[in-house]
Specification:
2 strands, DNA binding, two-stranded antiparallel ribbon, H-NS_C_dom, single chain, 42% helix, 1 helix, 86 residues, H-NS family nucleoid-associated regulatory protein, 5% strand
Length: 86
């Protein structure tokens, strides 16, 4: 292993060049993996479908929103939720 500063800098330059050659391939591979996960709608470990967004509901009178989780607010409780989808 080189011991002097100049030799280490030359080695660093060579390694940086190798990294730059490999990096575009890595980015393409990650993009392909993300696309496959989106298309299959599965998590990376195959445990099942990804959790779907619960949606958002908006009160047209006040602009208040509800995520669809937990106890429903009074303005939507017992009503059809479709007209309130945001």
């Amino acid at each position: 292993m080189p011991k002097n500063y100049k030799a280490l800098l030359e080695r660093k330059t060579a390694l940086d060049a190798e990294i730059n050659v490999l990096e575009p391939g890595k980015a393409k591979a990650l993009q392909a993996a993300h696309q496959l996960v989106r298309e299959e709608n599965r998590d990376l470990f195959g445990a099942g479908p990804l959790r779907q967004d619960t949606g958002r509901y908006r009160n047209p009178k006040t602009g208040e929103t509800w995520s669809g989780r937990g106890r429903p607010p009074r303005w939507i409780e017992g009503r059809d939720r479709k007209p309130f989808e945001a």
